[in-house]
Amino acid sequence: MAGYRRYHKEDKVSYSLGITLTFELLKYKKEYVNKIYIHSAIKQGDTLDKMELLCKEAGIKIEYTDKIFNVLSQKENCYVIGEFVKFQGKLKQDAPHIVLVNPSNAGNMGTIMRSSLGFGINQIAIIRDAVDAFDPKVVRASMGAIFSTDFEYFDSFNGYTGKYGSSDRELYPFMLDAKISLHDINPGKKFSLIFGNEAAGLPAEFASVGTSVIIPHSADIDSLNLPIAASIAMYEATRQIFGNTVK
Amino acid sequence: MAGYRRYHKEDKVSYSLGITLTFELLKYKKEYVNKIYIHSAIKQGDTLDKMELLCKEAGIKIEYTDKIFNVLSQKENCYVIGEFVKFQGKLKQDAPHIVLVNPSNAGNMGTIMRSSLGFGINQIAIIRDAVDAFDPKVVRASMGAIFSTDFEYFDSFNGYTGKYGSSDRELYPFMLDAKISLHDINPGKKFSLIFGNEAAGLPAEFASVGTSVIIPHSADIDSLNLPIAASIAMYEATRQIFGNTVK
């Protein structure tokens, strides 16, 4: 039997680290689960019983071992790991999309997934070079949102627009040098919010793509951090949907 | 000469880890700087020359040593550390405030500082128990915003309102069970945006404080992450200020 090894982006499987995350995995992507690992230090009780029952019902094998935890998890209180086969996503043609151009940080990608699910825009196009969306750090930062997110990789922005950029799709690249303020946008049902790399932002040529947008802020900071900018944009762009939901 | 030791919250000094952050420290809080440490692996050139010149002009001692880097910095490309005396802050009585009740995560606190400076609300009340705002992780996540932020600790929320809660201050606790939607608020010039702990949120009794607010989102996530919720709230609350700034 081969030993466990660290996660690599070429692997066919990835991992949910922690029991809460693994419950999310079992809830939304059960059919992709290979195996659940349980550490000997786990607390006995209802939660563990529930996990074991869920696995039994779904015919998912549980392996009781501590070894894989030493390899995959730096966190002290991680006693459950779910191993799942990476699933393929495809965006919905008529839905709003988030487009991330060259995102480089795993935590940011996961946080954006969580926000985008929260605002009902769980459709993410990722333009390479880009961080691996299946990195366990992304999975963890998403708090399970990745299991309800459709995402699709493209080698170029043109690759994305070639497939999804029909004439009725509104494109909003977010840039410091922009045509309009986020406060003034009022998108329809089919739009793409486009964000650049954490350090570099979007290349200047995006100024000619659709309607460029800025989130106005003081000159005291260079820019907002990426998941925050993306989340503010989603909040504003979904005002028509969520703006009237409080009783 | 005593050896270097890890940062502790009781220490009188804290640290900026990295050259960009240390430039921010020298720009905004020069008078609090004790010393600058420079690692032997730093690249020679204009940036280093500028750092050395700045220190010379300000009469700040530079120590060329690698030892403190092993103790304080886990990052590989950190070649400059600034040591500064912790400064005391006091909030502005008539300005908008952010109030963080029991924040527990250093990265989140720093990210909130950065956003709050971006939206011109660099006034943060912190209600204990709370993470140490001078933790080098906060300093780093703030990207230097901490050096332009006024923050003040309180032992209780009543301690805060006793000092700053005059009758003309609008209080907006952010809660899932809230009176109004963020989309509908329209605050004046003197308001407080109040947020609970990352895991627990605000205690239920905050429902009777001012006007409770929710950021509406889908039921697919439990909540938005704290710095994202706070940043979206600041974006909306400063609409009158930043909503008309684009040419």
Labels describing this entry:
alpha/beta, 4-stranded mixed beta sheet, 247 residues, homodimer, 5-stranded parallel beta sheet
SSE blueprint and pairings:
The structure is a homodimer of 247-residue chains.
Chain A: E1 13-17, H1 19-29, E2 33-38, H2 46-58, E3 61-64, H3 67-72, E4 80-85, E5 97-101, H4 106-118, E6 123-127, H5 136-141, E7 150-154, H6 157-164, E8 170-173, E9 180-181, E10 191-195, E11 213-214, H7 226-237, H8 239-242
Parallel strand pairs in A: 2-3, 5-6, 5-10, 6-7, 8-10, 9-11
Antiparallel strand pairs in A: 1-4, 2-4
Helix pairs in contact in A: 4-7
β content of chain A, as a range?
A: 15-25%
Helix-strand category of chain A: alpha/beta
Quaternary structure: homodimer
Uncertain ranges of chain A: none
Question: Can you write the helix and strand succession of chain A as a string?
Answer: EHEHEHEEHEHEHEEEEHH
Return the average pLDDT of chain A rounded to an integer.
95
Write out the strand line-up for the largest beta sheet of chain A, numbering strands in chain order: 7-6-5-10-8
Q: Helicity level of chain A, as a percent range?
A: 25-40%
Terminal Cα span of chain A: 58 Å
* Number of helical regions of chain A: 8
Radius of gyration computed on alpha carbons of chain A? 20 Å
Quick one: how many beta strands of chain A? Answer: 11
How does this structure look, described?
Two copies of one chain form a homodimer. Chain A is of the alpha/beta class. The first copy, chain A, contains eight helices and eleven strands. In chain A, helix 4 (106-118) packs parallel to helix 7. The longest helix of chain A has 13 residues, at 46-58. Chain A is elongated, with a radius of gyration of 20 Å. Chain A starts with 12 loop residues before the first strand and ends in a 5-residue tail after the last helix. Chains A and B meet through helix 4, strand 9 and helix 7 of A and helix 4, strand 9 and helix 7 of B.
